[in-house]
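Preliminary data (for renewal application), zinc ion complex.
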Amino acid sequence: MGSLRESLSNVIQRRFSSNEEAPISDEPDHATAMSRTGSRERDLTTRSLQMSRVRTADTALEQVVEQQLRLLGYRWISNDPGLPGKPDFSFPKLRKVVFVHGCFWHGHECPRGRLPKSNTEFWIEKIARNSARDRRQVEALELAGWDVLIIWGCALRPARIIELACQLLDFLEAQQPFRGLDPRDQ
Ligand SMILES: [Zn+2]
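Predicted structure:
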């Protein structure tokens, strides 16, 4: 595992230092991401421009993880509507899912998760609802035998990209005991 990790680090480092972008525009999952952005934008007509920027940033976060997963050679399903919370990435054969959470919307206890000074009550309630929904979705997934990894936006800085790749690899390669059939397989 050690040497695999080293060679992966090399690949990833080369990839990033050459500033090469993975071509994603013709991928179906990218199209999904775009349409999601569209509906998100429509939601936002009554909200501030600042919040719209935060959401666009969330999509960018998913793309960072997507690029790493592609470099690591995984295949996944994006936003499977058959799973609780439509996880950003699901791996049916591995029975694992990955969520990428923007720190603001999902209430991370970090500087990026800090609430605006105006309308604070509204935001406290809103973000608390989001967090409660996130917890319910994780519980539902785990009950159905899925392993869940949550990646926070603040962990996706370029300086931590190798850490991210290792985290994904550790999570996806970890053996998990067989916990029953997916209801959709029956
Ligand atoms: Zn954070």
